[in-house]
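seq:
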Amino acid sequence: MARLELGDETIELTQYLAPEGRPIPPDWRSNDLWFQHIAIVVSDMDKAYQQLRSHKVRHASTGPQTIPVTNIAAAGIRAFYFKDPDGHNLEIIFFPPGKGDPRWQNSGNKLFLGIDHTAIVVSSTQNSLKYYRDTLGLKLAGESMNNGAEQEHLNNVAGARLRISGLRAQSGPGIEFLEYLAPRDGRPAPRDTRANDLWHWQTTLTTDSAMNATQKLRAAKRRVISPSVAELPGKSLGFARGFLARDPDGHGLQFIEK
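struct:
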């Protein structure tokens, strides 16, 4: 495992030496229900894009896209999707003045600033709100409806029309729902997904009590993957207790108690 920091946020990379998991399917699409990415905030989209181009990253978007003024909630935001060496989708995103968290307006001459959110494709915004807002306690921070040529080129999905909902906790990156109103042919997450499969992502949520959290999820008949709460002697992974669960669409969640 390797923990990487960018600004105030962290990501963890996990390599399973044994047993090895399955690779990401080559026909994976941005509207498939197991799609997930992280959004890395940049202070200058053109410079960031050129830096990625200089490292020959694989495009997922045709190029950086600017949300048009007709989309009042997201107007002027610029974004670009690309892939890491294993095929995971990543995004760089630029927030103009008045959009996004105000802290992203203070770049301090840095190009890559931090991680704003992780985005997940959901089959139903309402069902996901029941899970993340009503059960887990996240707050709905904003919504928008995105469609048009720019969205098609960003997601590389013809006819893309999305309902986007942003949720926030007290701190840390947000969770963004991407519900494809069109097209509706996104495939469900493989039911036999395992933590060592390369398409597996897990969003880490911190709780005061891992035991209470797992009991709450089980009482609500939500999917808990771990057979029990794991105790980690000496906080070997940076926390004392934890367990894995899956949301209504199969996205992985790691609940930890520090």
